[in-house]
């Protein structure tokens, strides 16, 4: 399991605490220090079945000056912009051992991940 986090984010700290409490092993990726490549972000988006703008943080996207159309023709531009400005990526993103990927911002999604990993 891998979790993309920003240590300053309370939702990321909550997710880590829940995984720790459940005894689930994971690899922590501080994605602001080690931004994903375009290929990694595209892969995560495929597993999420979402487009890049679906996981873009609105305020951070505005601050970064990202103002692109939200359409298939600009998908790669969005990915490139988000890789260049990783703060715009929603968090935490958890990829389970079977490849299932979620944005675990709410307690229900996080609980689902924990239950899934426990089997």
CATH topology: Glutaredoxin
User: Strand share of the residues?
Assistant: 5-15%
| Ends distance | 14 Å
**Percent in helix:** 40-55%
Radius of gyration: 14 Å
Give the rounded overall mean pLDDT.
Answer: 96
Number of helices: 5
- The CATH class name reads Alpha Beta
User: Number of DSSP strands?
Assistant: 4
Describe it.
- The chain has 119 residues and is of the alpha+beta class.
- Helix content is 43%, strand content 12%.
- It has a 4-stranded mixed sheet, sandwiched between helices.
- A hairpin with a 5-residue loop joins β3 and β4 (101-103).
- The mean pLDDT is 96.
Brief description of this entry?
This protein is an alpha+beta fold. 43% of the residues lie in helices and 12% in strands.
Question: How is this fold's topology laid out?
Answer:
Layout: E1 2-5, H1 10-21, E2 27-30, H2 38-48, H3 58-63, H4 75-84, E3 93-95, E4 101-103, H5 107-118
Parallel strand pairs: 1-2
Antiparallel strand pairs: 1-3, 3-4
Relevant terms:
Glutaredoxin; 43% helix; 5 helices; Thioredoxin-like_sf; Arsenate_reductase-like; Arsenate reductase; four-stranded mixed beta sheet; alpha+beta; 119 residues
